[in-house]
Amino acid sequence: QVQLVESGGGLVQAGGSLRLSCAVSGRTFNNNAMGWFRQAPGKEREFVATINWSGGNPDYADSVKGRFTISRDTAKNTVYLQMNSLKPEDTAVYYCAAANGWSPSRLKSRYNYWGQGTQVTVSS
């Protein structure tokens, strides 16, 4: 059974940092792009960042560009999201996802495996 398990969320003050991890078990996704999405209360789930199968070609939402960094360790079957200079508007549940192909994508429909999410709360 495929599982994606996020960790690293929590409560942080504005300007602080967090590092999210997504551990994959059940199969490897070394040939698949991986992504991070987030969902704030009352809002649609939105794209945050994506990376291709080899750890290249990262792409970011404009709202996080320059502050967040996505990376992956294929040996550990783990994807990371380093979040710096956090803002209250970054508060959301963050989800990692595995795409159904090698190419990075901003589209939720391209991802067919999802984690349960981890809460990130940024206080002002």
3D architecture notes:
- The chain is an all-beta fold.
- The strands form two sheets. Strands 2, 4, 5, 6, 9, 10 and 11 form a seven-stranded mixed beta sheet that branches. A four-stranded antiparallel beta sheet has the order 1-3-8-7, with no helix packed on it.
- A hairpin with a 7-residue loop joins β5 (46-51) and β6 (59-60).
- It starts with a strand and ends with a strand.
- It is 0% helix and 49% strand.
- The chain has strands spanning 3-7, 10-13, 18-25, 34-39, 46-51, 59-60, 68-73, 78-83, 92-99, 111-114, 118-123.
- The protein contains no helices and eleven strands.
- It is globular and about 40 Å long.
Q: Could you give a short description of this structure?
A:
The chain has strands at 3-7, 10-13, 18-25, 34-39, 46-51, 59-60, 68-73, 78-83, 92-99, 111-114, 118-123. The chain is mainly β and 124 residues long.
Task: List its salient traits.
single chain, 49% strand, 124 residues, 0% helix, seven-stranded mixed beta sheet, four-stranded antiparallel beta sheet, mainly beta
Largest sheet: 7 strands, mixed
- Give the oligomer, counting copies of the same chain as homo and different chains as hetero: single chain
- Rg from alpha-carbon coordinates: 13 Å
Q: What is the SS-derived class?
A: mainly beta
Low-confidence stretches: none
Bulk shape: globular
Q: Classify the helix fraction into a percent range.
A: under 10%
